[in-house]
Design brief:
The complex is a heterodimer of chains A (45) and B (364). Chain A has 45 residues and is an all-alpha fold. Chain A is 49% helix and 0% strand. Chain B is α/β, with parallel strands linked by helices and 364 residues long. Chain B is built from 16 helices and eleven strands. Chain B has a six-stranded mixed beta sheet with strand order 4-3-5-6-11-10, sandwiched between helices. Chain B has a five-stranded parallel beta sheet with strand order 2-1-7-8-9. In chain B, strand 8, helix 12 and strand 9 form a beta-alpha-beta unit. The longest helix of chain B is centred in the middle third of the chain and has 17 residues. Chain B is globular, with a radius of gyration of 21 Å. Classes of the chains: A mainly alpha (45), B alpha/beta (364). Chains A and B meet through loops of A and loops of B.
């Protein structure tokens, strides 16, 4: 498992950077999705 | 779960979609007034299920999004004072002010706390008698009673180290302002269910009659929204303009009378600027003179801060329904939930944030 994690970590990093770069041109690369930050209670409508 | 699962039932939703298609003969523009409804529409793809002739316009129904920049700047001016503990709900922290945001101030050392209930800030004030505790009261009639209760209790407890920065707004005046606008495209409204659970819907009767405008008080689940759209289209097609209540399991015509009474005790109706829409007469709620001792604007002398909206963010056009979020050139590029240019991208109820979350890859 350690080997797998070591293999995937740089890939995930690459994809996250790649997504950021590509999103500037509105292209799609749904490989990595960042979880939204928990900001607690929001002002409800 | 009762009152929830049946309102997410796909078979019922399909029947309503078919019924809407069968009665629609002309193009119609319908505005949903509530950010929660906008979020549901985009999340469930309701607009994509409807006939092309029906255009849903996302109205100014997100509380954080419509809070004017000058109030964000007032909050920042107060929060950076060393003697202040500033309390706010979480989504306001990343809304950009003129120069920075509350989260940035917090990172620099300001004591800014995310609370889960307005009353939590009262407890903080009691625990820290050497500090000035301020709560940022923002939103529509839905949340105004909680702020009113907070002010009422602070007065009852004679708390000297507690105050409120109040920027509550009222829905009927903004609907009237939108309908009076020369750019108005709205032909029917889905009324905000939560607001009406407090205020009832008698305030909407003269609006519907004067502007010949169907108003359907609508809930937030997919079946609620489809039923609201069906009732609205039916009125439009039949040439009727009435107030109908789709959200009967929650909303009654008189509303919540004790909550309204408390609001009348604590608040005055005042003119208020709305982000992207400008000043709207009688659209705000402010603390009455009796509560001046708990008014943060008076206590910290920030009443004269008056900020102009920046031109680069087109949230005003989004809030008026003049453009869809994806039509803004900054959408998803310079403006993202992580780095928002304006409030509509910050709060999860904001139209830009909903499009970013569910639609950003759609047109690839």
């Amino acid at each position: 498992m350690k080997k797998k994690n070591a293999l995937f970590a740089p890939l995930i990093l690459t994809f996250s950077l790649r997504e950021k770069e590509l999103s500037n041109h509105n292209l799609m690369l749904v490989i990595y999705k960042k979880a939204p930050k928990d900001t607690g209670q929001e002002y409800p409508s | 779960m009762k009152y929830l699962a049946e309102y997410r039932d796909p078979a019922t939703a399909k029947k309503l979609v078919t019924a809407i298609a069968s009665i629609t003969t002309k193009p119609w523009n319908i505005m949903e007034m509530c950010g929660g409804q906008t979020h549901s529409i985009i999340k469930y793809g309701i607009d994509q299920l409807l006939p092309d002739a029906i255009n849903l316009i996302h109205g100014p129904g997100c509380p954080v999004c419509v809070t004017p920049l000058e109030y964000i700047d007032k909050a920042l001016a107060i929060a950076q004072l060393p003697e202040v503990i500033f309390c706010s709900f979480g989504d306001m922290l990343r809304v950009p002010g003129s120069h920075h945001d509350l989260l940035g101030l917090k990172a620099q050392g300001a004591d800014i706390r995310i609370v889960y209930s307005p009353l939590e800030s009262l407890t903080i004030a009691q625990q820290h008698p050497d500090k000035q505790v301020v709560f940022f009261g923002v939103g529509f009639e839905t949340t105004a009673p909680a702020t009113a209760l907070l002010a009422y209790q602070a007065k009852q407890l004679a708390l000297k180290n507690f105050s409120l920065l109040v920027c509550h707004v009222r829905v009927p005046p903004v609907m009237e302002a939108l309908l009076n606008s020369p750019n108005n495209q709205v032909q029917g409204f889905l009324g905000a269910g939560h607001v009406c659970s407090i205020m009832g819907y008698h305030e909407y009767l003269p609006l519907a009659a004067h502007f010949k405008m169907p108003i359907v008080i609508t809930g937030f689940e997919p079946v609620d929204i489809l039923q609201g759209i069906y009732l609205c289209i039916k009125q439009l097609e039949e040439g009727r303009f009435e107030v109908e209540n789709e959200y009967r399991r929650v909303v009654k015509e008189p509303g919540n009378l004790p909550a309204q009474q408390l609001m009348q005790t604590v608040f005055n109706i005042v003119d208020r600027p709305w982000r992207g829409l400008g000043n709207i007469a009688a659209s705000g709620l402010a603390l009455t003179a009796e509560y001046n001792d708990w008014n943060a604007e008076q206590r910290f002398s920030v009443a004269n801060i008056n900020t102009q909206e920046p031109a680069e963010c087109r949230s005003g056009e989004v809030l008026q329904g003049l453009i869809k979020p994806a039509q803004c050139l900054e959408f998803g590029t310079r403006c993202t939930p992580e780095h928002p240019l304006g409030a509509t991208m910050v709060s999860s109820e904001g139209a830009c944030a909903a499009y970013f979350r569910y639609r950003r890859y759609q047109n690839v």
